[in-house]
Automatic annotation (TrEMBL):
Species annotation: Streptomyces physcomitrii
Keyword list, A-Z: Metal-binding, Oxidoreductase, Zinc
Name this polypeptide is given: alcohol dehydrogenase (NADP(+))
Lineage: Bacteria, Bacillati, Actinomycetota, Actinomycetes, Kitasatosporales
PROSITE patterns: ADH_ZINC
Entry cofactors: Zn(2+)
Amino acid sequence: MTTVAAYAAPAAKAPLERTTIERRPVGEFDILIDIKFAGICHSDIHQARDGWGEGIFPMVPGHEIAGVVSEVGPGVTKYAVGDRVGVGCFVDSCRECEYCEQGLEQYCAKGMTATYNALDKDGEPTYGGYSTHLVVDENYAVRIPEGLALDVAAPLLCAGITLYSPLRHWNAGPGKKVAIVGLGGLGHMGVKIAAALGAEVTVLSQSLSKQDDGLKFGADHYYATGDPKTFQELAGTFDLIVSTVSAPLDFGAYLSLLKTDGALVNVGAPEEPVSMNLFSLIGGRKTLAGSAIGGIPETQEMLDFCAEHGFGAEIELIRAEQVNEAYERVLASDVRYRFVIDTATI
C-alpha cells in the first residue's frame, strides 16, 4: 500500500480537509497515475453532503481525473510511463454482462464500481481524484489526446461524456433542433458538443445573463425560461431537449416544447422526487428519458472528438484549499463553468 495526500469529507456535510489515504499496490494490469488535475462536479457535493443517500466516509470525491502514468504493472499493454490519461466516474465493472461486453460499463448489470463513495471488489472503499495519485486497472482509463490540455480535459471525464452520450444516442446532428437546459458545468459542454455535431442549438436558461457565453460556445438561440412567453413561442420546436439542471422541472412545460416523437433526456439528478401528468407524454408520442455518463469506448470517442474540434471545458483553476469555497460557489451558480483543482497544491 502507498500513502498519498488527499482532500476528504470526514463526515456528511462536513468541510473537506487535507488528509492521507492508502492506495493499493500496482497489480499486474494496473497503472499508477500521477493526478495533475481534478474537476469539481455538482455530484461531488450531492454525495459529500448525503444528498443522494447515505455515503461512505471519509469520502474523497472527484471523478474528473487527468494525469500522467508513472508506473505500469507487468501485464499492462495499453499504456506506458509518461502517457496522458484520464479516469471518469467508474473504475471497474463485472466485465461479463451483456452491457460490459458492449462497452456500456456504466450500465453494468451487477453495478459499476464508482470512482469514489463505493466499495471495490476487495470490499475496501474507493477514493476519488481529490488526491495526488490513483491506481486503476488499465481497462478503466482512457487516453487524453495531445491536442487537449490536461486541465481543460479533466471535466470532460464526467461533464463531457455525460452530454456526449445522450447527444450521440438520440442522434443530434444536422437537421436536428436540440435544446440544452441550463448553462453550467454540464450545459456549456452540451452546447459545444451539440454545435460541433452540426445540430441547431438553443440554450434554455433561467435568465439571459449568460447569453453571450452561450452564443460563443456555439448556440444559435438563447431563451430565458423565466419568461412565460418562451414556452409559448417555442411550443413544438425541438427534436431533443437535454436537461442538465439538478432541480425539479415542470416536465409538462418542457415536454410541450418537443415535436411529436421528441425526447426530453435528463442528465441532472435532483435530490427531490418529481411528478408529472402523463398526458404530457401521450399527446405527442414523446419520450421522457435519462442518461448516465458513457462507457469506456464512448468516453475515448468523446475525448478524440473534442480534441478534433479544438475544445475542452471552460474552467477556473483553484488550489486544493479552496475546495470548500468552490462548493459554495457551485451551489450559488458562481462559476464559469467548471472548477478544477490543481492537485500539485494538495
